[in-house]
Amino acid sequence: MKEHLLRLWPEQASDYAVSVDWLVIGFTAMMVLFVVPVFVALWLFIWRYRRGRKADRDHRAQSNLPIELTWIILPFIGSLVVFLFSARLFFIARTPPADAMEIQVTARQWMWKFQHPGGQREINTVHVPARRAVKLTMISEDVIHSLFFPALRIKQDVLPGRYSMLWFQAEHSGTYEAYCAQYCGTDHAAMLARLVVLDPADYERWLQANGTQADLISQGETLYRQFGCGSCHGTASAPPLEGLYNQQVKLADGSQVLADDDYLRESIMLPQQKLVAGYAPIMPTYSNLLDEEAVQRLVAYLRALPAGPAKENP
Amino acid sequence: MSAPSYLHKQGLMSWFLTQDHKRIAVLYMITVTFFFFVGGLAASLIRIELVTPNGDLLTADGYNRAFTLHGVIMVWFFLIPSIPSVFGNFLVPIMIGAKDMAFPRLNLFSWYLLLGGGLFTLLALLLGGVDTGWTFYTPLSTMFSNGHVVAVICGVFIAGFSSIFTGINIIATVHTLRAPGMTWMRLPLFVWSMYATSIILVLATPVLAVTLILVAAEHLFQIGVFDPRLGGDPLLFQHLFWFYSHPAVYIMILPAMGVISELITASGHKRIFGYSFVAASSVAIAVIGFLVWGHHMFVAGQSMYASLAFSLLSFMVSIPSAIKAYNWSATLYKSDLTVTAPFLFALTFIGLFIIGGVTGLFLALLAADLHAHDTYFVVAHFHYIMVGAAVAGYFGALHFWWPKITGRLYPQLWGKITAVMIFCGFNLTFFPQFILGYLGMPRRYHTYDPDFQFLNVLSSAGASILAVAYALPFFYLLGSLRWGERAPMNPWEAAGLEWRIPSPPPTHNFEAPVIVDFEAYDYSPEARRDPL
């Protein structure tokens, strides 16, 4: 990046960032309109009505309903308009496109770990393609962190025990700063990362150069075998996992739950929390055996398991 | 011969066992001044450390402990008790024509709670140190912190009862001890704002107490409330914490707004413009203020629809504040203005409050907050409100009622110099932080990107001016006790019951029972003529 003696505006790496800046500029202009009259009136009145200065002080008003209503209603309408503009942008920022490329993020005191769908893994640096929607699925192994990309104007807290999500589409290739924004203990200020945006062709080359034997799903499959998950799931003693993802699951307490990432993760780490109806609570916790990265791989595998009796039971 | 003043009795015991609301106010004043300097010292350490991008003065842990100490001490032991406990105590009974607070012994007990809780907290912070920040976010505070979290929490918990009792006392006093004829719509606006503040103190502080107990329980006994590994929910803590801590910001700013209404009218020698709107806006802020806590959690992982609702409500809560600012300016129209030191503090307040309020709206603006959240933009914003404006209000009150409290006049020129220095020093310190934040510098960073250095140096330079300005009144106000001229009953030619009794007031405030047959701010509706 270029050296600047004094930078006054952050870089814009996405179209979304440009929209946020325009919102901020527009809102600033509106605020100036509401605030300047106060300052002008203050200085004018201080100047005109100093004690000892001749001025017309007769018929001093004590209150004036139309004036009061004006300065209540105008800011009210103004804030509604701006609220709608910002709500629209916020909605975009919180709704990833369905075809977004997904990267898994694990945060811990004090580092960022990334896993690509192809199985590539990085620490404190993440490579992404330009002009393609990227969705980050994030979880923390200890305290709350927050992944912050100033050039994209977005951040999202990364929680322990629950996945959170961030998405963006960077337009321009380059290297951008990322920070941990949520105070997380001693070396909070050292929990930095770099976002490297590559042109799609360069990104493909980078993937090749850093490729591994297996992609995320098959790494998950390996774990699935290694930990013997199939020795119960796949028999009558445990619920089947094929096609489970995004289905409603009936629980022992009669309620229903959507089998999303969080549910799959919780069922691995704290299996006694949500028991599936009709099965005995025999599954042990895997929280001592698997770290969050491994769980992300397992979840990737479970998501990819096709419905129906595609896998023959042993 | 009139009755002896409340300061007449001598001896330490006459202070430590006093039930006189005025003496208790003075005890509070000494206490919060002490904590203000302790918190200020920690702030100085922080600003010196941040002059350079590298960590050279403090270690990472040392820095984290410094900003935790700064936050904890300033929030709970200076800002929250400052105006309510000092000036609320001194003025509310006098302003409504009462002899004392409704519960004088409870009042003294509240002071002991604040002092005890404060010293205990300070000791824990100095001897053990806590590195969680004043926000105690879980699971950092419960499972990962290496400091004396539980001890500090105990101290804050104890001091919380001081808040609750003070709130109860003020509410009871305003309801039951108003002099005959002192109707609600005749109350000075300072009393209205103290009343609104007390509602928050009584309703919000218990939530903090419960939350802190839960944190301590999880920390000590591994009871899973907030830590997901124990089956808890870390966001639950944030909901509970901000349910208290956002209204707590209004505990800090509402009393200051009440002070400004008094200073503006007294300087302008004119009734406030739109009395009922200004009074009602205090209550509106107190009520709506309870419904906006979620704007601290736009990026925390709460539901998108919750965020939308909290954003809209946060815009709504700004409107009563805008009403006040507009009415204050309108009050000066056709006024008879004397530009005194308290008036300059009022202007400082209005200037800083408007900047702080407007930048707060940027943070209520969802899309802007995703970027600015947890950066120096937030730091700058809440310092403009909680320090710039609230302390300007406190100092304004100090300079306005000092002659009444002590019976001495202080040099006006020094007061004016201080007010101007605070305004300039404050803006130099904190305005660059808005730019830093928008550039992306996160808060609570011990070291930072060298790109950010120039603005940080500006900020630290401003902080040194601010430090001098905040320390100055200590010298000339104390000096006035020895060398100051004796204050007359009404040095500012102001309306209000407190200006109709001697300075300093007698022990029971009024020598004869008060009957109120005049409106609040009963300045002449026409221009001031020659008084004779």
Automatic annotation (TrEMBL), chain A:
Membrane-spanning ranges: 20-46, 67-91
Enzyme class: translocase
Subcellular location: Membrane
Residues annotated as domain Cytochrome c: 215-306
Domain of life: Bacteria
Keywords associated with the record: Copper, Electron transport, Heme, Iron, Membrane, Metal-binding, Respiratory chain, Translocase, Transmembrane, Transmembrane helix, Transport
Matches recorded under InterPro entries: CcO_II, CcO_II-like_C, Copper_CuA, Cupredoxin, Cyt_c-like_dom, Cyt_c-like_dom_sf, Cyt_c_oxidase_su2, Cyt_c_oxidase_su2_TM_sf
This enzyme's EC code(s): 7.1.1.9
Membrane-protein topology: Multi-pass membrane protein
Domain Cytochrome oxidase subunit II copper A binding: 98-209
Matching Gene3D superfamilies: 1.10.287.90, Cupredoxins - blue copper proteins
Catalytic activity: 4 Fe(II)-[cytochrome c] + O2 + 8 H(+)(in) = 4 Fe(III)-[cytochrome c] + 2 H2O + 4 H(+)(out)
Keyword Heme among record annotations: yes
Annotated function: Subunits I and II form the functional core of the enzyme complex. Electrons originating in cytochrome c are transferred via heme a and Cu(A) to the binuclear center formed by heme a3 and Cu(B).
Matching PANTHER family: CYTOCHROME C OXIDASE SUBUNIT 2 (PTHR22888:SF9), CYTOCHROME C OXIDASE, SUBUNIT II (PTHR22888)
Family to which this protein belongs: Belongs to the cytochrome c oxidase subunit 2 family.
Name of this chain's protein: cytochrome-c oxidase
Organism lineage: Bacteria, Pseudomonadati, Pseudomonadota, Gammaproteobacteria, Pseudomonadales
Gene: coxB
UniProtKB/TrEMBL annotation, chain B:
Keywords: Electron transport, Heme, Iron, Membrane, Metal-binding, Respiratory chain, Transmembrane, Transmembrane helix, Transport
Pfam family, one: COX1
Compartments (UniProt record): Membrane
Limits of the Cytochrome oxidase subunit I profile domain: 9-516
Membrane topology note: Multi-pass membrane protein
Membrane-crossing segments per the record: 25-46, 66-96, 108-130, 150-177, 189-221, 241-260, 272-293, 305-323, 343-368, 380-401, 413-435, 455-479
Predominant subcellular localization, coarse grouping: membrane
UniProt cross-references to InterPro entries, sorted A to Z: Cyt_c_oxase-like_su1_dom, Cyt_c_oxase-like_su1_sf, Cyt_C_Oxase_1, Cyt_c_Oxase_su1_BS
Family named by the database record: Belongs to the heme-copper respiratory oxidase family.
Name of this chain's protein: Cbb3-type cytochrome c oxidase subunit I
Taxonomic lineage of the native organism: Bacteria, Pseudomonadati, Pseudomonadota, Gammaproteobacteria, Pseudomonadales
